[in-house]
Amino acid sequence: MGIVSENTFIILLQIVIGVIGLGGGAEIIVRSSISLANIYKVSAAFIGFTIIALGTSLPELAATIQALEQVNSVEIALGNIIGSNIANILLILGIVGYYHEIIFPKKDLNNKNMYSVIIFTIIAFIFYVLTNEGNSYTPIFALLLLVLLFAYLLLQYYWEKKAIGSVIDVYDYSHLKSYIYLIIGLVLLYYGSQHFIIGSNSIADKLGIKDTIIGLTLVALGTSLPELATGIVAARKQQTGIAVGTILGSNVYNIIGIFAIIVLISPDTFPKDNMPLIVNGVIMLLVTLLFFFKVRIGIPALGMQPHKIGKNTARLFLSLYALFILFNYFLNQ
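Request: output the structure for the sequence above.
Response:
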């Protein structure tokens, strides 16, 4: 009994250390990235979608690599990016929108990014279906995804040069200090994700929970903590546009960049006919479409206006996320 309790304590300690490493590392990365963005004079929307989103997506990337290398679980890796994208929209935007109303100006960069997120989500889902058909040229698809991501970042830069917005002056470090903090944050993210994934996999084994469900819920929630922290900080400073840009950017990095890396690293062990992954992939697509239509045309039947996320929408998103967790719980039974 004592041995079991000791092992359980070690597992929980690993998860706690992992969460602290992920959250702390991402926070340091975000601060240093904002400082560098201020130094190089780019807009708030560009900061959110590119630099901060990349920083907050590093936990998903690190957790994915650890899932593939440490516990050899493609299911956790794929579940992580699908669950993270769902959590980013329903949970993170729900909390931020409840805390402070989010407004979407019609000509804001984030409106273009909404279209991009939907297109990329559909593309990635189609690639996943093709992969399940057993195509041997999947790595080529993965490389095409990475090229597409790089091209899109160049397009982001083009849009930025055409209309530069306001620059945030939240953190003001020197060049050297910003880069040092960035490196420290990356180290914390790597080791934090390592402990978190190993601990989560141990819990899955003890409780008999499928790897896919663990990836979709526990791991996805843990790697979405940086987006949550960023969103709350941005809302406090009345910079909700940054929060939205970060979430949209993170979703693009997850579903295109990290998905491509999973395919490249483990093309031969890609799960075939995994119903929980396919079902949750459909849920991710539906959640993305719900977010788009809510912002573009609103939900008149529920009294929700377009171009903003307020308390009513936040309650809807948070309720849907609770249902998503319950659905996956029963899916595991």
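The chain has one domain: 2-332.
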